[in-house]
Design brief:
The structure holds two protein chains of two kinds. By secondary structure, chain A is α/β, with parallel strands linked by helices. Among the domains of chain A are: 123 residues, 3-Layer(aba) Sandwich (Rossmann fold), CATH 3.40.50.300; 37 residues. In chain A, helix 3 crosses helix 4, helix 4 crosses helix 5 and helix 5 packs parallel to helix 6. Chain A is globular. Chain A starts with 5 loop residues before the first strand and ends in an 8-residue tail after the last helix. The mean pLDDT of chain A is 88. Helix content of chain B is 50%, strand content 11%. In chain B, helix 4 packs parallel to helix 8 and helix 15 packs parallel to helix 18. The N terminus and C terminus of chain B are likely disordered. Classes of the chains: A alpha/beta, B alpha/beta.
């Protein structure tokens, strides 16, 4: 077995508590996760589960309080600033909110060329590359002269994807990349993610609260509940026939877009909730 | 500082997503302001006059001539006359301009350099470094400025430039504060995180991404500080502090003051020149503020909208017969917003809906489809700039459009109630949950405080809050989003309304909480016999709770029907497209992990 592209083991993250001499609050209690080259791994969880924090720890935006993060066999848990900047060519990000993840005062062209030039490309090469990137994400090449606010949410998210692809990374952390988008745009952007992965072999860590989204793009899925990884497995298994009671609860709570199937699902969920209230083994809670 | 209109996207209609050419830079906005043009022209004229001082004036500023002693206005060779030392007033005025501008440049320049640099550092880096910079700047601010400048005269040797350099440091805390606050506001923005992930150095992030976002207020402050520095320099010169060989407005005013009764014009000229200069700077600062910050619209205030003459104003019940068996009827409703060019743009265009008693109607559409606008119109809470161009909204046969705010208030709460999308922002953080609910109950019914409290407690229990007593005493930030939504639902159903308008009531909630809230809405509806108008973009929610659906696209209802019918046999292509875009249970990813890593751009 070859070393996975990304290996997270026993990751712990704690944030300082509020108030004088308050104890730090641990939001991740030892999480394991591995992502192979070219693989898409979904991380599902509700708000407060710590799913975004895992992504931010991998990106070096929060400092882990314990555990280890290794990228291509190399320990990057507490990489110094310089090593971290070099990692920018390998690990990239697409954030949730396309409205705040692009600098409102910069033209699209500048947003995309800046990191390329920073990593040593000439201005001419960078411009040529930006044209290729815009084409890859399905935006017109005259977009370079425009400001982010001239674009719709879906188009902005395409710009953010182009920015992530710019240095030719091996892994992209996608933090709820479609949850701010309209339904029809959501499906198109997800298809773009899959298409890019097929062509470039980039790996994704796909963070979402939505089982349907994760099911659509992921090969494997991990479920996070209050800072603990409760279940990991193949996407269709975890998102359709999960083992863990919490994942089952999550699945039953997600409404199906079919009135008949949804009625059945609702009744199943209510039946279980009643059983739980009556004192049957709760499991998840 | 250039971000416009994102905040109010909730209420105002979404701008057309197509990228348009309508970009207006702040500089162009500035040049459309007559005040800015006048002040800029004045300032440029000052600079040019100052630069050409030696060319225009035929005498040096300190060149004294006995013949010219107190020469009056219009004397040959001394167009503005001469002072009591026989020095040419015009020449001294022109050279004073240079002194003032250099003072302003040094004072404001040093303040900007020091304040912005440390503001960026103090704001961006951790609290430990910040407390250091904070302490130093607080200390600087405690110095009595003018006094310090006078006391330091032996060190500065009376050189006004050195004095202004020190004054720049005294002005720096103000700039530091502005910059630091702005940086704290933007440093957690996602685009700054994205820049960090892109491998940009801190220096580059600070110098480009953050400085760009904070420059607006700093530019505005710079214009005011420029004026302050000039005024302080003149003030010191007026007091006679510093080198009296340097021509300056202050020194000229001081001399003119001595001859005020014999030669009043000697006092008037420098006062006028200084007054116009500082006034121009202050007014330019105000114009800059308008151009750089004024573009952001204030959050829309909720008030009764304008109803255009064509709409069914006041008509008691024009089509009463149609209303049989419906509690809420919306007929041919059109809502428009004024565009910047003054024309009206319709965001809702001829919407008709019927809501039967006890029925749940799902109003479905994507962002910008006008679904929220339609819901707001039925509540009478459209933003004031909205214009209802035609149509009619009847609640139990009574026309809602055109009602006064007072009449609407009696309707809201009693006949029609509202559950919002963001539960947290719809609770006032400074009052307890219980106080807010009691106030709501007492506003819509005549009951005593104790009775109202009792009713609220019963409602809190009814909406499934585990410890109602504690929730009653809690402040909004002490309860979760799901609990807050339960509280708002309790408030909405308190007076047993006939119609409940729920605008994306579960969008901000986790799925497990969403399921519980939908269950609660369903139970309350059958218990109270309410009709529910549910605005949503989520077809799962529609499938779960709605009896009928109206699909909206670009301000029109394109399809209406029973929920099961629309899901099984959608007629309109747009509905079919929406249903096709749903990520359903079957769309599992089937292809394996991508095998080879090909760098992007090298593939075909």
């Amino acid at each position: 077995m070859t070393t996975p592209l990304l290996e997270v083991s026993d990751l712990r993250v704690a944030f300082p508590g509020r108030g004088f001499r308050a104890k730090p609050v641990e939001v991740l209690h030892g999480v394991d996760l591995s992502i192979a080259s070219g693989e898409a791994v979904g991380v599902v969880g509700e708000s407060g589960s710590g799913k975004t924090t895992i992504g931010r720890a991998i990106l070096g935006l929060v400092k882990p309080s314990g555990g280890r993060i290794a990228f291509a066999g190399q320990d990057i848990t507490a990489a110094p600033a310089k090593a971290r900047r070099a990692l920018a060519r390998e690990i990239q990000v697409v954030f949730q909110d396309p409205y705040t993840s692009l600098n409102p005062a910069m033209e699209i062209g500048d947003i995309l060329t800046e990191p390329l030039v920073m990593h040593g490309a000439t201005a001419k090469d960078a411009r040529a590359r930006v044209r290729t990137l815009l084409d890859q994400v399905g935006l017109p090449s005259d977009a370079v002269r425009r400001l982010p606010r001239e674009f719709s949410g879906g188009q902005r998210q395409r710009v953010a994807i182009a920015r992530a692809l710019a240095p030719g990374p091996k892994l992209i952390v996608c933090d709820e990349p479609v949850s701010a988008l309209d339904l029809s745009t959501q499906a198109r952007v997800l298809d773009l993610f899959i298409d890019i992965q097929r062509r470039t072999g980039v790996a994704y860590m796909f963070i979402s609260h939505d089982l349907a989204v994760v099911r659509h793009v992921s090969h494997r899925v991990s479920v996070l509940y209050r800072g603990d990884m409760v279940e990991t497995g193949p996407a269709d298994k975890v998102t359709s026939a999960p083992d863990h009671p919490y994942t089952q609860k999550l699945l039953l709570a997600a409404p199906v877009s079919d009135p008949v199937a949804q009625r059945a699902r609702r009744e199943e969920r209510q039946r279980r909730a009643q059983a739980e209230a009556a004192g049957a083994p709760a499991g998840a809670a | 500082m250039t971000e416009v209109g994102v905040l109010d996207a909730e209420v105002a209609p979404e701008p057309a997503p197509a990228p348009g050419p309508g970009r207006r830079s702040p500089w162009r906005r500035l040049l459309q302001d007559p005040q800015a043009i006048v002040t800029l022209v004045v300032l440029v004229a000052y600079v040019v006059l100052g630069l050409l001082a030696d060319v225009i004036a035929s005498h040096g500023p300190n060149e004294a001539s006995l013949q010219a002693y107190n020469a009056p206005f219009g004397t040959d060779g001394h167009p503005l006359g001469a002072d009591s030392s026989g020095r040419d007033i015009l020449s001294r005025l022109l050279h004073s301009i240079n002194t003032s501008l250099v003072s302003g440049l040094i004072g404001a320049g040093v303040a900007l350099l020091v304040g912005v640099t440390f503001g960026l550092i103090g704001g961006y880096y951790g609290p430990r470094l910040r407390s250091g910079t904070e302490w130093v700047f607080a200390l600087i601010q405690t110095f009595p400025g003018l006094l310090l400048l006078i006391v330091l005269m032996p060190i500065t040797k009376g050189d006004y430039r050195f004095t202004m350099l020190i004054f720049g440091f005294l002005l720096a805390p103000g700039v530091y504060r502005i910059t630091r606050n702005q940086v704290l506001g933007v440093k957690n923005e996602l685009y700054v995180d994205a820049a960090r992930v892109s491998g940009l150095t801190d220096r580059r992030i600070l110098g480009r991404h953050i400085l760009m976002a904070v420059r607006g207020p700093v530019i505005i402050a710079a214009a005011f500080m420029f004026g302050t520095a000039i005024a302080v320099q003149s003030g010191l010169a007026f007091l006679g502090v510093g080198n009296n060989q340097v021509p300056s407005f202050g020194a000229m005013i001081s001399e003119g003051f001595k001859n005020l009764y014999s030669e009043p014009m000697q006092f008037v000229w420098p006062s006028l020149a200084l007054g116009i200069l500082t006034a121009a700077l202050v007014l330019l600062g105000n114009s800059l503020r308008d151009a750089l910050q004024g573009a952001r619209r204030k959050p829309a205030k909720i008030a009764a909208p304008v109803v255009a003459p064509g709409a069914a104003v006041g008509s008691a019940s024009p089509a009463g017969a149609d209303d049989a068996g419906a509690v809420l009827v919306v007929e041919d409703l059109a809502i428009a917003y004024p565009t910047p060019s003054g024309e009206l743009r319709e965001v809702v265009d001829g919407v008709s809906l019927r809501l039967g008693p006890g029925e749940t109607l799902g109003l479905v559409g994507e962002s910008g489809s006008g679904k929220t606008q339609t819901a707001f119109a039925t509540l009478g809470v459209l933003p004031p700039e909205a214009v209802v161009t035609r149509g009619s909204i009847r609640l139990e046969g009574r026309e809602v459009l055109g009602l006064s705010e007072r009449e609407l208030r009696t309707l809201r709460g009693r006949s029609i109630a509202y559950v919002p999308q963001e539960p947290m922002s719809n609770l006032n953080p400074s009052f307890t949950v219980g106080a807010q609910l009691v106030e709501g109950v007492r506003a819509s019914t005549d009951v005593s405080r104790a009775e109202a409290r009792e009713r609220v407690m019963a409602l809190l229990t009814r909406v499934g809050i585990p410890d109602p007593e504690r929730t009653f005493r809690s402040y909004p930030h002490q309860i979760s989003g799901g609990m807050a939504q339960r509280v708002l639902i309790a408030g909405a159903v308190a007076s047993r309304p006939k119609v409940l308008i729920a605008d994306e009531p579960t969008t901000a909630l986790d799925v497990t909480v969403q399921a519980e809230i939908l269950d609660l809405l369903r139970d309350l509806q059958s218990e109270l016999g309410m009709a529910v108008l549910l605005v949503t973009h989520n077809f799962g929610v529609v499938a779960d709770i709605c009896d009928r659906i109206a699909v909206m696209q670009e301000g029109r209802v394109v399809e209406t029907g029973e929920t099961t019918e629309i899901f099984t046999a959608p007629q309109h292509p747009y509905t079919r497209m929406l249903l096709g875009a749903i990520l359903d249970e079957e769309t599992v990813r089937t292809d394996g992990p991508a095998a080879v890593a090909v760098p992007l751009g090298t593939d075909a």
